[in-house]
Write a structure and sequence with these properties.
This protein has about 325 residues and is α+β, with helices and mostly antiparallel strands. About 25% of the residues lie in helices and about 20% in strands. The strands form four sheets. The protein has a six-stranded mixed beta sheet with strand order 5-6-7-9-10-12. A hairpin with a 2-residue loop joins strand 6 and strand 7. The longest helix has 18 residues, at about 155-170. It is globular and about 45 Å long.
Length: about 325
Amino acid sequence: MRISGGITELITQCIRPADEPGTPDMSDAGETTDDGSESPILCVSRAATCAKPVKYAIPTPAPSFLSPARGHVGKHARSEDRCDLRPEAMSDETDDTGQTGETDEGRDVFDSQGRRFYAPALKASNVMWLLKHAWFRAECDHTLRTRLPLHCRDCFDLVSKYLLALKARDIGIPEDQLIIDIAQAGGVCRDSDGGVIVNGLFHGIELKGSCRKGDTSATFTFKSIRLQDTNWKHLLLVGRVRDPTSWLSIEDVESHVWLGHVKRAAYIRALTTSGRSPLEPHDATVTPRCMRGWLSSAVCWTRLEHLTRAWWERRVLRAEEHV
């Protein structure tokens, strides 16, 4: 059968490779899913299907002192080949991304258990740092004015953190020395509400807040203080005599607030003395400078407006017991 020249040229164009200049790539036209609908995700160009195989480098074998099955250090490994996970040994080491522990946001820190706290994450979630921004202060002011009277749970956590951070910045406590985690739970500070950095070591803090009880002048009840499964070294009690009409500045709030500090060891002694179990959370009703209540003898109080850098360093940074 004789084929005309025009038909021959048409057939040649149809079978010409898609990557030849002047010819559109029609290889992905009309691809569909099983139900017949068009699916550009399933389209594969002819160039991709006809691609040449690529040679891959063969990975370097693991060192001989590593177990091939588990990657554990073998019993004949040299001491210099072993991985030292202690904070003092890892502080200048690189992490799994090849970066050192020191960044523009500061240096990574460790706690007494050897757990690492990543410096950029600590900074980004630190209320002390967020207070630099006017939008954050305005947002907190609006939230506390409108939601705290409704007893919203998120405000119970925010109000104590916000008040402490406001005053801490006011008296010049550095933001890389006091970390107050904006997250309610499970944040970058793990099982703590924040932490203080003492000699390069992270000491967790537990923050509890309360408004005065009933018609009393300054009696507060702090709920559900936990010891079990926690690692805090300092318990900070923030008691509000009344809530202000504005939360924008420290001058608006400091005259209405008491701050109490309890070391972990003192809290344990108070539990033991009162016959309370350390395995259960406990409520504590306390009045500043009054000895009534099972926890009262363990608390060091100051009015927030009287808080000074010297008080903070003496009670918190220079605490003798961190266990």
